[in-house]
Amino acid sequence: MIDFDIQFAIRLIPLMMQYLKVTVMLSILTMVIGLTIAFIIALITDAKINILSPLMRIYVSFFRGTPLLAQLFLLYFGLAQVFPVLIKLSAFNAALIVLSLNSAAFMSEAIRGAIMSIDKGQMEACLSIGMTYWQAMRRIILPQAIRMAIPALSNSFINIVKSSSLAYTIGVTEMMAMAQLEAASSYRYLEAFVVIILVYWLLISILGHMQSKLELRLNQY
Amino acid sequence: MLKLRNIHKSFGDLKVLKGVDLEIKQGEVKAIIGPSGTGKSTLLRCINYLEKPDAGEIMIDTLELNAKTITKQEIYELRKSTAMVFQNFNLFKNKTVLENIIESLVLIKKMDRSTAIEIGIDILKKVGIEEKKNVYPSKLSGGQQQRVAIGRALAVNPKVILFDEPTSSLDPELVGEVLELIKKLAKENMTMVIVTHEMSFAKDVADKIVFMDEGKILQEGTPEEIFSSVTNPRISKFISRLSK
Ligand SMILES: Nc1ncnc2c1ncn2[C@@H]1O[C@H](COP(=O)(O)OP(=O)(O)OP(=O)(O)O)[C@@H](O)[C@H]1O
Ligand SMILES: [Mg+2]
Question: How far apart are CA A49 and CA B26, in angstroms?
């Protein structure tokens, strides 16, 4: 018989819920900042703006081509040695910055792919009635592209939620840190990690449900 | 009214337009015919600068545009006085029928929405599709979509409408309704340039027919001149092949 202390597990749940707030907050802020940067990158890349476009390619290549954990450590421990201002940076903000920059690289690719998948005729029709490139983007191309990108962006958000657990490695007390702490102090590793995994699973299932709802609403045309 | 002078256009090494001159008078309907790959679409697209000509001049009323010196502002001016109807309709997929029509009124002409809607409804009545005003394009047949696209072009209130094979991607039974609408516009003295493979339609609706071949205008004349007293062997070959 496996020794699983259900009472202990149940007592952990309210504690987890308390630190779920940190996870959710970190994830939502990351999504908002990351998505904003992602749109800027995608638009600059798509418009083929001199100098900026190649820089964006390098940005995306860097953040997609290196591990998130290494990026996190580089900013929080590495760069702080060179730039003393960074020492004042809180662990939460450091995690927020790195998660945002990292997720922006992935999301910009999703948005760019969606923009490219829109029939070229849509842009031509816009231009032919006298719209500017940016008017066409704003009114016609992006609304269609965003709808196309919803599944990929939802995936990115799910990845953000899961990746936010890495923040515990630089000392952010979120859900993962809590589970780690409780497990270590009680030696009830199994219970602690089963509970945290279930909480993540539940959280992400809810997100998946919201995604289907959103897609349904956008499916009017 | 619309004048093209010595229009040149290449894609890389491929010379597509090799010096095209063309003049369209107010109220005139010109059909452009010719073999595939001759540059008919490219010519139309140059007229509203979806393609930038390498050289040549476009004159429309008082606007004189030289490909070498044209500015962005001039391109917008040109596009406000021309409108394009595409082979694949290219209706805005995220906009309803009515929104497709009024987009240029609200965004470009800065009309307030209620005025734009009034004008939009009038246009929809004209193209005979008012009852579908709140429907998205994906719910329409090809013929209906093309009629909305013509309505969208009319909303620009252009000096000339450019049609690029407006019926080529339609099922045969839907071709008629679109051709009828274009004929109706011709009767109302709309100035139009129509690239088409529908020879009987061209004969019917056009004041002048332009035969293009290998990036040049080979001959221009009335339908009678082009179709009956064919003098050029390339033209007679093209026409006899099509009417088979
Ligand atoms: N964007 C482009 N890039 C490269 N080549 C092009 C481009 N657009 C057109 N061409 C080439 O230019 C030539 C003329 O094309 P165009 O579409 O103007 O011909 P067309 O007379 O309209 O033919 P069709 O009757 O088949 O529509 C073709 O050889 C075509 O492959
Ligand atoms: Mg063509």
Answer: 40
CATH fold, domain B2-85+159-242, is: Rossmann fold (3.40.50)
In the predicted structure, residue A117 carries a pLDDT above the cut 90:
yes
Q: Are residues A158 and A50 in the same domain?
A: yes
A117 has a chain B CB within 8 A of its CB: no
Predicted local confidence at residue B15, as pLDDT = 96
Comparison of pLDDT for B26 and A3, the residue scoring more? B26
Q: Are residues A108 and A198 in the same domain?
A: no
Pocket test for ligand 1, best of B10, B38, B87 (most atoms within 8 A of CB): B38
Residues of chain A with Cβ-Cβ distance to B137 below 8 Å are 221
The token duo for B115 is 């005025």
Pairwise CB contact (< 8 Å): B108 & A131: yes
Q: Show residues of chain A in contact with B80, CB under 8 Å.
A: 130
CATH classification of the domain holding A145: 1.10.3720.10
Q: What is the pLDDT of residues A165-191, one digit of tens each?
A: 999 999 999 999 989 999 999 899 999
Cβ neighbours of residue B216 under 8 Å, at least 6 residues apart? B18, B19, B20
Query: Residue A72: which domain range?
Result: 22-166
